[in-house]
Amino acid sequence: MSGSAYAQQDDLWYPGEGVRQDMYVTYRIQELDTADGDPYVMTLYFKEQQDGDWIVPAAVQHGNNVITGIMKLSDGMSYLAGGSQVPAEMNDFIGGYQGSLHWLDAFTTKSAPLSLTAGSWGKIAAIGGEEIRPRGVEKVAFEGAQDLCQADSCDATLVMWHKGVDNKIWIVNGFPFPVRADTFAEDATGSEVTQFRFELLETGTGEPPGLSGSGAAQKPPIEKRTHSGYYIRLEWTPEEIQPNNDVSLGISMFDAQKFPLLDVRYDLTIKDSSGQVIQELKNQVAELGTATHQVNFNGTGTMMVTVTITAFGGQTTGQFVEGADFGIVVVPEFPVSAAMVAAAVIGLVVIITRTRGTSIGSSLFGNKGTASP
Prior knowledge:
Elements: E1 12-13, E2 23-31, E3 40-45, E4 48-50, E5 53-62, E6 65-73, H1 91-98, E7 114-115, E8 122-123, E9 131-141, H2 145-149, E10 153-163, E11 165-171, E12 180-186, E13 192-205, E14 222-225, E15 231-237, E16 246-254, E17 264-271, E18 277-286, E19 290-296, E20 301-312, E21 315-316, E22 322-330, H3 336-354, H4 359-365
Antiparallel strand pairs: 1-7, 2-3, 2-13, 3-5, 4-5, 5-6, 8-9, 9-10, 10-11, 11-12, 12-13, 14-15, 15-16, 16-19, 17-18, 17-20, 20-21, 20-22
């Protein structure tokens, strides 16, 4: 790996190898059980190490919504809930991290690292799946290759297994996470769907921007795909939601061809930014696949709206959960302190206007009719 700061002399690898203080990584991740399979971007900044564990400010961007928190990771990159400071809405994406970037920890760990030239790393926990094993070094292209290898592609070890289709993960020796992955699972119909897919977008040194504060709120409508390929759409008015104001939530449900589902039974659950249920409606009816609910939020932050289809057309959805989670942001009202500052400024302008031509007016605005120097 010419020019890489992560090149290693041995052929052992495990999640977390080569991690360094003050480095960051940014990945695009798609994981089957996270955000209804939607891709999201996760940035991890390894700020410092405390008692062997890493303090990692993190940011997740999903659509137009940005969630930030501080994760605590072991030296093997395992997520440690104790000591982490993350909002409830970030937990789903942390689960996606564990099921994608950290997935190979089930085979190779810091305490028992495996060789990138080994004949086998073990079998996956799935009937009919073959052994996971390294297949040699090949060049792999990904968006962050220039940062890592100063080229459009890197020399990486391909770790692969076959179950219906080829599943592939690429590892650059000495880098703490795989740089790219494409893996698959079977859905209820036997079709192949993405299990997890990710790609390194960027890596570097120093704290990256966007690790504090919140991003712009996602705008309506938001549409999500369910497990079996149905669609649920959420809209709301007004577009900017403020606390203690009535909000109209519109729900629409469609089949895989985007035709409205008829005679739908569904549950609606709304949680606040701390994960507490603030409204729960069971066995709601949408005869033509659409419904409207009035909600009043008394707090701010990202609220989680969950719509779960339990039946349609007289038939239940069976063992599969046909639902979707939507994160919507309630923005703070115009703060009192800002209002006081605005009032003070307005008052100052009134005073200045009334005293124009006096020393105050002259010093601030210059003498009327006199050219500026």
